[in-house]
Amino acid sequence: MGAQSRKAGGMTTVSLAARITRCPRIWRTERAQDAAPFTQGMDAQVAKLVAGAVSTSPYLMALLEKEADWLQGAADDPEAALAEVIAQAGAFAPDALADGLRQGKRRVALLAGLADLGGAWALEEVTGALSDFADAACAAALRAGLLIQIKRGKLPGMTEDDLADAAGMVVLAMGKMGARELNYSSDIDLICLFDETRFERDDFHDARSAFIRATRAMSGTLSDLTAQGYVFRTDLRLRPDPAVTPVCMAMAAAEAYYESLGRTWERAAYIKARPAAGDHKAGQAFLQTLRPFVWRKHLDFAAIQDAHDMRLAIREHKGLGGPITLPGHNMKLGRGGIREIEFFTQTRQLIAGGRDPALRVRGTCEGLQLLAEANWVPQEAADSLTDHYRFHRTVEHRQQMVQDAQTHALPKSDDGFARLACMMDRDVEPLKQELHDRLSAVHEITEGFFAASRAPAPAPPEMTHQFDTAVLDRWLTYPALRSERGAEIFDRLKPELLTRLAKAARPDEALLAFDGFLAGLPAGVQLFSLLKANPQLADLLIDIVSTSPALASHLSRNASVFDAVIGGDFFSEWPGQEGLGAALGALLDAEPDYERQLDGTRRWAREWHFRVGVHLLRGLIDAETAGAQYADLARAVLGGLWPVVGAEFAQRHGAAPGRGAVILGMGSLGAGRLTATSDLDMIVIYDPDGVEVSEGRRPLPARLYYARLTQAMITAMTAPMAQGKLYDVDMRLRPSGNQGPVATSLASFASYQKDEAWVWEHLALTRAQAIAGPQALRGDVEALRQTVLTQPRARAKILGDVAEMRIRIAAAKVPEGIWDAKIGPGRLQDIELLAQAGALIGGQSARDIPAGIEAARAAGLFDAAQAEALDAAYAQIWALQCAGRLLSATPVQSESLGRAGVAFLCRTLGCDTLAALEAQMEQTYMTAAGIIGQALTPPDKAEPQEAT
């Protein structure tokens, strides 16, 4: 047995002896001597390890007495021996199962204990070995329990063939077993469920009764104490409402419980849940249905309070408060113990795991490292807690290894500490010092995180401004503060908020803006918890509500968009349309349900939309960049949802007939420049390619198919669902406007554009771009656009029609004041019309307005200096439009701007005062209107220009 390694089946195996890195010291010489008869023929290193181990552990000695012969061979290849024991668990005959599993547990415990004490296996390998055997034992015991029910005809419609997936029953491993972190003497926490859809309604009660009996039989097989010992103590009390529910529940009943009554501790428990035995597929499907319960869509900082309450309740119930004193200290539940690290990790996973699926892992150490990588935990803290966790678990294992006792307490006597030190190959006093230091370090790291949630409200700071008490008093009547918990958190938050409001340029104005935001907030616990945990967000919140009533109103209805500020790449480089499309595609792929896909898209788009607005508000980007980013986002949404809507529609009516359809973006969408409140101008063009009817459950003629598909897309974009709506959609630029069909065939569109379209429709075509749909069809639509735009045209006709359009627009719509950047002479629409006319005259297909202005100059409508002036005017007017729409959905009014709004407008347009900005805009409009009027006036009617 002295071989250190050998070849087996072409693979190198490493013996236990070759991996021993430490050895327990002899604690009781006489006990070590008792092991001598059982170690004859063993490798000397293994024999020494065994002697040290049994000298400290009566439990290991008892295992050795029964399994010494097996150990002789197992030490040559521990992994192969372990795998064989696990495989054998599923092969026992029913009458040999109970004893066979108990023997298997003895062997796994003995091998893992020696590999652990000798440093041959890391902590994860030790707990993994125990957990893997627990899985195999559960599966074998479950199969035996179900076999009895099937043979007795108690499971309706089921035969022995259905044992392969346990007839739809699954055993969920929870807690340490779920995370593959079992102790030597752990209970195994199980939740037993069955898939009720496998049975007819009339058979449900019989099936449930049979599953309950099978569950009890499984539990007895595992936990009953016989002459051969026990396998695992089983605990079935983690199931929903265990005082009144059966030990095996229907999945639908469990799901209904969690949706309506589930608590935070149950959410935390399901972080570690996994199917361990039975119908794994049904178990995974059940866990998938619970995902919204466990992993909230928003950053769940309210979970901190819940977790802290649980910690306090455990301490009070177990009497574990007070300072750290080593004798009898509970390494699991006491201060600085294992549970502190687990709560710390799981709470942060609950906070952020809804947004970041990478954080949804079961293992504590793995969770800490992923949290550090995602910047939710400092790397130093994660490394420190990981190291402490492994040390704590090692100490806990040593204590349990002594007598197979379910204990987590340190020794109470000097003799007990001497034994522990020998097991760890340490001197007593240094070990005690390290224990105290580690427990203190864990307490210090974790307590600060939790205690902040329970900290009493700070004493109100000395106010530099006296606020209107009538405003402050009415806050308690608002919906967000009606719940006791919301009011409690806000009470601790309020002094800091008032301090920040007092520092505003106009405190009373800022208070009223915040009051408006608070009044519109439907619930406050999540937002207040987030602000309490992240005080830096308060500045951003006050900045937003003081500057932009429109953005503040949006924020009050969608406060979870703040998640993006701290839970994502809020201040990183803009990903562009391609990057946004990839991110949205991944989100859509992860949501199989259509309604969830739509809601997920709304939530996702809202966060990116919020980011653009905040970046513009804070001066991180200019108006031109914001316009491009808003357009990138809208195009990504259209490109992502169009195939999703199409796939959903195809389920009823079959695949799209012919070559499919494209979305043609018009106006600002086609040109790639939107504001915060822009609707989306678009046309749907399809090509049936000779196919007259779709092939599906409910076939439709091609024309009707694409008309209804377009309506489905409009609904997907505009319906006010749980997460709000995406965009308003405007289809009036389609052929024949509101009188025409909502979707147009390519052939009809081509015929219309070539033979029937008005000049204004060709003007609109200069900014059109196909942005969603099959690439080949998009290419054909673009080729048609190029053909239409480059055909010869009568210059006088174009200019005359545009001049007439200006007159009609001026008669129909009057500017709403100086800040109405869109409508009126020399404003956005006026400049855009002239630029589109220039593009049409010059046969240019570039979509942006500066390119159209240059085309107009090349056509001789004005000179280079005037073109430059028009470019500058358009840039400035666009900046006003983009900034103004962030402040208000309608043209802003000077009297309602507020000081912060005025400062934002002036900063965006490069002026020091509002008066200076007003004068600047008046001059800009006048200059642009003069250039446009001259360009559209026929030469024979032009008045002589005075020299300037």
TrEMBL record:
Pfam families: GlnD_UR_UTase (PF08335), GlnE (PF03710). Residues 317-450, 821-929 form the PII-uridylyltransferase/Glutamine-synthetase adenylyltransferase domain. GO terms for molecular function: [glutamate-ammonia-ligase] adenylyltransferase activity; ATP binding; ligase activity. GO terms for biological process: regulation of glutamine family amino acid metabolic process. Residues 48-288, 541-778 form the Glutamate-ammonia ligase adenylyltransferase repeated domain. One of its GO terms (cellular component) is cytosol. Keywords: ATP-binding, Ligase, Magnesium, Multifunctional enzyme, Nucleotide-binding, Nucleotidyltransferase, Transferase. PANTHER family: BIFUNCTIONAL GLUTAMINE SYNTHETASE ADENYLYLTRANSFERASE_ADENYLYL-REMOVING ENZYME (PTHR30621:SF0), GLUTAMINE SYNTHETASE ADENYLYLTRANSFERASE (PTHR30621). This is Glutamate-ammonia-ligase adenylyltransferase. It comes from Sulfitobacter brevis.
